[in-house]
Amino acid sequence: MKQVLIVEDDRHLSRGLCLALKDQELEIVPCFDLQSAREQLACAVTELVLLDINLPDGSGLELLREIKTGSNPIPVILLTANDTEVDVVMGLEHGADDYITKPFSLAILRARVKAQLRRDMIRVSKPFVIDSYRFDFEHMEFFKADIAVELSKTEQKLLRLLVENQGVTVSRTVLLDRVWTNDADFVDENALSVTVKRLRDKLDAARYIKTIYGLGYVWAVKRNE
After folding, report:
1. Cα separation, 134 vs 131, whole angstroms
2. Is 132 exposed, middle or buried (0-12, 13-18, 19+ CB in 10 A)?
3. Per-residue pLDDT tens for 9-35?
4. What ranges do the domains of the chain cover?
5. How far apart are CA 174 and CA 181, in angstroms?
6. Which of 37, 92, 139, 181 could form a disulfide with 31 if both were Cys (CB 3.0 to 4.6 A apart)?
């Protein structure tokens, strides 16, 4: 299931967007300001953002810049009433993947959302190289130094969530939902603890995979000594 984040302060429009995009393959999450959007993005599960420019606590362009300069940039479609040429150019120069002005056709919006999600699926992900580790999720090859490590599909999902969000604590709830997807409601939370321990042992990564008690887990960023 792919998560789409809608950042729109007009609650009536936000509800309409949530209904228009409702799909069994999508999880639609509404946010009404920059602060709540940043908190949601910190959970690191969002795969597309629909972003209004004019928000009560700042400009959506600020958030767009943060997303596009971050370690895991994701597609962003701007939704705004600002329809002058200058506004369009500014949004695109800030890295927007698409730009839709209000009012707009919901059918066109749905088509553009699906197009962005399809495009994101075919992007080739580059291997992660972290100190002596090399993780290639595209080809399912994982190395510590020059030694190959065999990981199960569940371990691969867990590892990817952690390394894509280095230095950020990913909550147990998010990990259960993203690693076990539709079966999360039926998975004993102990399964997550066991999977984390198994992954940590296989990679000999006790220095990296840290438990944040009461919250979740983090791939710790190595500090310069």
Report:
1. 8
2. exposed
3. 999 999 999 998 988 778 899 999 999
4. 2-122, 128-219
5. 10
6. 37
Mean pLDDT of the chain: 85
131, 133, 134, 137 alpha-carbon torsion, rounded to 10° = -120
Among 1.10.10.10, 1.10.150.530, 2.40.10.10, 1.10.10.200, name the CATH number for the domain at 128-219.
1.10.10.10
Identify the CA nearest to 7 among candidates 36, 42, 47.
36
Q: How far apart are CA 74 and CA 79, in angstroms?
A: 16
Cα–Cα distance, 75 to 47 (Å, whole number): 7
Looking at residue 182, its amino acid is N
CATH 1.10.260.40 fits 2-122, yes or no: no
Asked whether the beta carbons of 77 and 55 are under 8 A apart, the reply is no
* Cα–Cα separations (whole angstroms), residue 166 to 4, 10, 130: 22, 33, 10
